[in-house]
Structures are given as structure tokens and as C-alpha cells.
Amino acid sequence: MAGPMAEPRSSKQAAGEAAARLVKNGMKLGLGTGSTVEFFLQALAARIQREGLQVVGVPTSKATGDRAEALGVPLTDLERTPELDLVVDGADEVDGEFRLIKGGGGALLREKIVAAAGKKVVIIVGAGKCVARLGTSFMLPVEVTPFGHGATRGRIEREGHCTAFLRTAADGQPFRTDNGNLIFDCRFDKGIGNPVTLHRKLSEIPGVVEIGLFLDLCHVVVEGRDDGTVKILERPRA
């Protein structure tokens, strides 16, 4: 009698496992945040146990740090390890020019700092995350200081020509990032026409801490597919 059939791999799992295969012994890693990164952490931990792989990782959130510790992935920080060989993170949207929207998990500030420290940044996504225009299927997170956030919201909406919604937690209270800040999720009716210009305008607003537009920070996209296969896209070198 045949045993039970194995559960099919999700597109996120396929992407996470593929990224774990890119890790080499001795690497200093950036560990992203989110549901796709969870599969990467599991696969990385399995390699550490199976192969004796020696790596250290800088987590981009408290949640990732806690999960990595539970899985036995050694951790460090950017003070001790300011340069990283490989950063693996997820994204909410990716366009054809390797530009990203990130911050669905609320860790955009730390994710951008860690990405900037990486020699190579690999973005892992499940099916449906690659889009023709950013902002069409996912709102843009903008992290702001709590002080004066109502006034900051007004300027974000005027400068960005968007509608900004204060993110709330499960208890209905305003969501707080690991840095103690708030997040506005910004909706663009026709998507983001010019991400570079928008990033510049929003960055100039007092009270804005960070924007979930990641420009020129992604080198490789690993896209998982529903059939369990992956497609790897590499950004052309300038």
C-alpha cells in the first residue's frame, strides 16, 4: 500500500530553498524578514546541521533574529560585521528593472540598512510578485516618526499624489516597528509612475524615516513558481 503523498512545495518554499543553495561556507549573511524568508531560514538551518556549514547572519528584525536562534543559525550584528557577503530577503513587488516595494512585514528601515551592507542582494519571491509597474498590487509602506505623524501624512499625500493609511496591529492600535515608529501604507490609483522621483520627494519630507522603495539594491531575483520550480533573474551589470 502506498504511503501518503508529500505536500507540494509552495512557490515561496521553492524560492527560499533555492536561495539557501547559494550560501557558501564562511559567508556573512543578511537575513531578511517575511514568510518567504522563513523557508530560506529552514533550508539554511538544515544545511548547517547536515553539512556543518559555518555562517553568521545579521537579522533585519527581532522576529527574524528569534527565529534564526531557534533554528540554530548563528547571529551577529553590523557593528561586529559591517560588510556582508550575501543578503537574502523577500519583497512585496518586483518590477522589470529590479526595483522593489518592501515593508509589508514592517522591517523596511533595517532591511534597507542591511541590504546596503551586502556585496550581493538576492530577493526571493513567490508567484505573483513580479509586476510591470510598482504600486499596482501592493501599497507602498512609509515609516515615519510618531511625533507629528498627522502633519507628515498630509505632506506624503500631497507630494506623492496618493492616499496614506495608518497601519494598525491586530489589537487595533497603531502598528509599531522595531524602531518604535509608525507606518503609512500608501495607495497609488495607477501605480507608481516614476519610483526614483517619488523616492526623492518623500525622502525630503521631515518626519519620514524610510520609504519602502528599494532602488539599485537588488542584484538577483529568485522567483518561485506554483509548480515548485524557480526562475532566477540577474540584473545586468552597469
Outline of the structure:
This protein is about 30% helix and about 20% strand. The chain is of the alpha/beta class.
Summarize the structure in words.
It is a single chain. With 238 residues, the chain is of the alpha/beta class. The protein folds into 2 domains: 11-127 and 216-226, Rossmann fold, CATH 3.40.50; 140-209, 2-Layer Sandwich (Alpha-Beta Plaits), CATH 3.30.70.260. The protein is built from 6 helices and 13 strands. The protein has helices at 11-20, 35-51, 62-71, 108-116, 149-160, 195-203, and strands at residues 28-31, 56-59, 86-90, 93-94, 100-101, 121-125, 140-144, 163-166, 182-187, 208-211, 213-214, 220-224, 230-234. Strands 2-1-3-6-12-13 form a 6-stranded mixed beta sheet, sandwiched between helices. It has a 4-stranded antiparallel beta sheet with strand order 8-9-7-10, with helices on one face. A 3-stranded antiparallel beta sheet has the order 4-5-11, with no helix packed on it. A hairpin with a 5-residue loop joins strand 12 and strand 13. Helix 1 crosses helix 2 and helix 2 (35-51) packs parallel to helix 3 (62-71). The model is unreliable at 1-7 (pLDDT under 50).
Features:
single chain, 238 residues, alpha/beta, Rossmann fold, Alpha-Beta Plaits, 2 domains, six-stranded mixed beta sheet, four-stranded antiparallel beta sheet, 28% helix, globular
Fold blueprint:
Elements: H1 11-20, E1 28-31, H2 35-51, E2 56-59, H3 62-71, E3 86-90, E4 93-94, E5 100-101, H4 108-116, E6 121-125, E7 140-144, H5 149-160, E8 163-166, E9 182-187, H6 195-203, E10 208-211, E11 213-214, E12 220-224, E13 230-234
Parallel strand pairs: 1-2, 1-3, 3-6, 6-12
Antiparallel strand pairs: 4-5, 5-11, 7-9, 7-10, 8-9, 12-13
Helix pairs in contact: 1-2, 2-3
